[in-house]
């Protein structure tokens, strides 16, 4: 169970919000894996909060689909089902490819410069803190997020971009599992370089094809693992 600093000095509404945020981050990052039982006593000890704010935080996570309430048995991290993953990947491809086409059509010189800078910074960050096994690097994760946001940033459709952001966040816990399975064999850096090049060349067909492949590869790694676990 991840260790957390005590939050017990905060007022109850703030404490429940803080606990919710920490738990949410731990679920999305994969530190709390799909299906893990969320035992109230252990959580209270690790996150430094009492039962009431902890239950409130867990109920909010359940409403968001990140936790599941078990009848008379508390909560667990939402399971990762192959069908959910496939639907999420398909939704991301449809939404982000549409946004990328519009971004390529509308993007100006400032957008090109921002994308070049985002890709450069991503290429300079180490994907893993350990070269032999995957250990998430917060710097790489931040650069990765900025790169994907930069790709779409010239799309002048805020509701579509908000939808893309929500899907990206939902996919984060699956991506965390994929990183562990795919590292170090998958050359993610080369995928990003090719995607940036096609986008900057204004080759919309190639760019959206590469973006779709990028997400589908992620889905393939974790999907095979989920299918194997279900068999």
TrEMBL record:
SMART domains, sorted: FCD, HTH_GNTR
Signal peptide positions on this chain: none
Keyword Membrane set for record: no
Record SUPFAM superfamilies: GntR ligand-binding domain-like, Winged helix' DNA-binding domain
Regions annotated as coiled coil: none
CDD domains: WHTH_GntR
Limits of the HTH gntR-type domain: 13-80
Keywords attached to this entry: DNA-binding, Transcription, Transcription regulation
InterPro entries for this protein: GntR_C, TF_FadR/GntR_C, Tscrpt_reg_HTH_GntR, WH-like_DNA-bd_sf, WH_DNA-bd_sf
Gene Ontology MF, one: DNA binding
PANTHER family given in the database record: HTH-TYPE TRANSCRIPTIONAL REPRESSOR GLAR (PTHR43537:SF20), TRANSCRIPTIONAL REGULATOR, GNTR FAMILY (PTHR43537)
Protein name as catalogued: FCD domain-containing protein
Organism in which the protein naturally occurs: Teichococcus oryzae
Taxonomic path: Bacteria, Pseudomonadati, Pseudomonadota, Alphaproteobacteria, Acetobacterales
